[in-house]
Structures are given as C-alpha cells and as structure tokens.
Specification:
The chain contains eleven helices and nine strands. Strand 8, helix 10 and strand 9 form a beta-alpha-beta unit. It has one domain: Alpha/Beta hydrolase fold, catalytic domain (Rossmann fold, 3-Layer(aba) Sandwich), CATH 3.40.50.1820. 32% of the residues lie in helices and 19% in strands. The chain is an alpha/beta fold.
Length: 328
C-alpha cells in the first residue's frame, strides 16, 4: 500500500468537479417531505444486556416510506440529562451489530444512537432491517448496494438510506433523555458519507464527525481505484455502456460533493493518504467544499482505518472544544 493519489499540497486545494443535478434541493426537500408524512412513532424497548452501567434500548423508527428501521440507543445509567447524543451511521455491508460494539460514547457520558442500515448487515456486523422498497427498484444491478435502482434517482438505494439517516436524527431527538439541540452525527466510510449527507439535510445538527467518507467525488473515485465498493459501480458501467450518463446522473443526487456546501455544522474529517477504498482526493474534495467550520486529520501512512481508536480521542477533544459535552 502506497500513497497513490495527488500530493498533499494539491489535495489541500483540490475541490473536484461538481455535477449538481437541476432541482437538487427540490429533490431532497420532496424526499424528506414524503418520508415525514409517516408519523414519527418510535418504539423504545428496554433490554437487559448485562452492561450494568448502561441503559440499552432496542429501537424501531419509521424511515423512508414509513418502513421500520432498527437501531440501538445506549445511555449512561444515572447520567445527568438532557444528554448530547451521537448518532452513528455504519460502514458498507455492516449493520447495527451488538450493543457491546458501541460502548465508547455512552462511557464518555453521551447518549449514543446507532442506526441499522436497511438491507445490509451480513458482511462484517449483524443487521436487523430489511429493505422492502428494493422490490420497486426495477432493473439489473451488480451484487452489492451501489447500483441498486441506479437508473432512476427516485428508486436509488441511497435516496432511501439518506432519508433513513435524517429520520434517525429525528428519532434520537424525540427521546426524553436527549438534548435535541446537541446532536452529533458520526460515521466512517459509507457511514461517513451518511454523516455528511445528514449534516447537509439537517442543517441544525451541532457537529459532524466524518471519517473517510464514501460516495464523494464519485466520478473521480471510479476512475482511480478498483477497490470495492466503487468497483461495483465501475463493473456495472462496463457492462451497461449505453446507460453510463443516466447512472452517473443518478449518483450525482447523492454525491457528497454536492451535499457538502449545504452543511453548516462544525465538522472534523479524517483521511488516510494510503486509502484506496475512499481515495484521499475524494475525501479532500468533500472537505474543501464543506460549508461549515471544519478541521481535517491527515494520516500519511494510514489506509481506510480512519485513525481507528486513536482518532476517538481526537473526536472527544473536538467536541469538548465546541462545548458539546455531558454535564459533570
């Protein structure tokens, strides 16, 4: 693994080439309006995990199309509320996993809401949410999720997923232990792309922790890396040659490069200069277009690990500087 992308000095100013579809804002406003027609009725089912210092809830809330989306809510037992909440989105192929996977943020005193990912959760962590709308996403697709419904923005998988991400914030805000003014969105890779989208689509979130975001500057990504999951898209386009323009126009509706300027929350990004899954230039493109106050942690010898656990300390310190901390 080597540094294969642009030199750092060029990355620091690289912005990519935006292909913003006509009616982009109207598309997302309509998507969220349609999603919110379904009442926000959240089921908080307390469960005993054996984690004596945490309260754990198995959550179900209505996402896109009113379809049930699962999640976890973990609260520090006896924490002084209302609590700031960290809403986490999961990486590609993964699901919400087990409550035991998510103890760092509640151990630091935060409420922690983990959104399951519709249709995913069989590659590396467990999922519990089907994607019933996928039956309507007519047309062939390459195995995986990036090409599902790709010939129509209305049917595209990530339209549904980004709508779910917004509803996860609304669900988290509805819990009485949560301070709705102090919502932090967090994720890495696919989850980083979702955190970026959520920060753009919910302009009053308090902060965004965006690690190595997937689905930013997609046209460049598929030209310079043959790693999955971008390779799914490249292989699809290699077969569906006459549909290239249509497919890329659909992708433009979810590209972080078009969403980033609409975000206003203070954000901390991370990037690995040896990352061949989400190439550094695609991360910097989103970072440089990001509309709010921002910082980025550059990891010269890291790949797609986003700094791993070392970066959690950076995230905690970032939130502390912003004053988004639990009451002592």
């Amino acid at each position: 693994m080597t540094q294969f992308d642009l030199p750092l000095a060029e990355l620091e100013t690289y912005r990519g080439i935006r292909h913003e579809p006509p009616g982009f804002d109207a598309f997302w406003a309509r998507t969220l309006d349609e999603t919110r027609r379904h009442p926000l009725m959240v089921d908080w089912r307390a469960i005993d995990t054996g984690l004596a210092l945490l309260e754990t809830f198995d959550v179900t809330f209505p996402g896109f199309g009113g379809e049930p989306i699962r999640g976890w809510l973990l609260l520090p037992r006896g924490g002084r509320g209302p609590l700031p909440v960290v809403v986490r989105y999961v990486g590609y192929g993964g699901g919400r996993g087990h409550p035991f996977d998510h103890v760092v943020w509640p151990a630091a005193g935060y409420a922690h809401f983990v959104m399951d990912t519709r249709g995913q959760g069989s590659a590396w962590s467990l999922g519990a949410t089907p994607d019933p709308t996928d039956r309507a996403a007519a047309g062939p697709h390459y195995p995986g999720f990036v090409t599902r419904g790709i010939l129509d923005p209305e049917q595209y998988y990530y339209r549904r997923l980004y709508a779910d991400a917004v509803r996860a914030i609304e669900a988290a805000r509805s819990h009485p232990a949560v301070d709705p003014e102090r919502v932090v969105v967090l994720g890495g890779s696919q989850g980083g792309g979702m955190a970026l989208a959520a920060a753009a689509l919910v302009p009053d979130v308090a902060a965004a922790l965006i690690d190595v975001p997937f689905l930013s500057d997609v046209r460049r990504a598929i030209a310079i890396t043959d790693e999955l999951p971008y390779a799914e898209l490249a292989r699809y386009l290699a077969v569906h040659r006459v549909e290239v323009a249509t497919a890329l126009a659909t992708i433009d509706h979810v590209d972080g490069l078009n969403l980033a300027p609409r975000a206003a929350a203070p954000a901390l990004f991370s990037v690995g200069l040896m990352d061949q899954i989400t190439p550094p230039s695609t991360v910097f493109a989103a970072y440089n277009e990001y509309g709010g106050p921002k910082e980025i942690r550059v990891l010269p010898y890291s790949g797609h690990d986003a700094g791993d656990q070392d970066h959690v300390a950076e995230q905690l310190a970032f939130l502390a500087r912003l004053g988004i901390v639990p009451q002592p």
